[in-house]
Design brief:
Blueprint (H helix, E strand, L loop, with lengths): L3 E7 L11 E7 L4 E4 L8 H17 L3 E6 L5 E8 L7 H14 L1 H14 L9
Antiparallel strand pairs: 1-5, 2-3, 2-4, 4-5
Length: 128
Amino acid sequence: MSKMAGKKEIQGEKKKQGQGKIVLCGANAYEQKYYFNETFQGIPQSIKDELHIICVLFTEEIGGIFTIAFEPDGNVVMETNFAEDDYLYDEIGSGLMVKEVGRNRQEMFESLSLYYRVFVLHENLDLE
């Protein structure tokens, strides 16, 4: 994989990549590939399909690599990276699109966070 430069995040504090995060899914415009972490097979198919569409459309429009991951506390974070020599990558558009996706899919991301906290972190959630 080529050197990565530039990184944008939404939700949660900015942390170094790979520091306890678990990638849920992502798309890579350079290799034209989509990835879904099989650890999360229990997520409903309709949500998996929506995640697939979000990731692929993001990389088709903006370029680079786009991932959706869980932080150690269960918060969902979206990240976009690009190759240092990728002069076609839309850095301004990437920030705007990350914010738009976060705003439009807020309920889905909150549900994914709850899923992670219950089924991965085994938190006991009292919903009173």
